[in-house]
Fold:
Amino acid sequence: MRIGLITPEPGHPLLAAATALLTPSHQVETLDPGMVDEIPGPLADVYLLKSRTPRALALAAGLERRGARVVNSAAATALCQDRTQMAAKAHGAGLPFAATRTFATLAQLACGSPLPGPAVVKSRHSRRHDLVARVDGGIQLRELAAAHPHEPVVVQEFAPNSGWDHKLWAVGDGLFAALRRSELSPGGRGPTLPLAPGDLPPGWPALVRRVGEVFELDVYGVDIIDTGDGAPLVVDINAFPGVRGQSGAPEALVALVLDR
Structure:
């Protein structure tokens, strides 16, 4: 079996561990989307899209047009990069996703009506080192806008919570979980703490699976906060996250690849 990795980082821990498990019996090829525009010759049996750059999405879409199987699809990956479309899709499916408003620029938001209370301002387009900040008042908002005036943003009402993000990941049939201090916490994120999926509140694993169905994802992450008594609020969805340090994740990825 031939497996293609669409990524500039084949040494990423999840991919490297999965490759080590696959290579005794299968051929694994790396396709750096920064170096390759199209793939000539016969297609691989399956491609793993572990990159979200425009070139990577274009490469994956081109492979799909030729009949290739790509995990996750280019369309599903692109959807998870646009938080406006993400929220609309989630709300349309009845998922408990944070209410989200969109502004063309952060400067426009700062010039409008005052925010009704604490809010979370995020870059509309999800990417590495994007903007995620809690805003408690007009002065703070204007300072943020001065630093990022042209940034398209979404605004989510701040939901009181424990200060911990529940990081949940699905890799095929595998489900993994951890606790991490919110990046909005005054002390910063801090370490990631292990969390057994069996210790999640009732209904949360099913919610994660429902997210995968709605967004047509096979490898994905769901960020959830507990707003009280186990009531979940989804605040972000990521296509093919790192899933670092989760025992069994490489094996789950291998099982998914061979199944596809």
Observations:
- The mean pLDDT is 93.
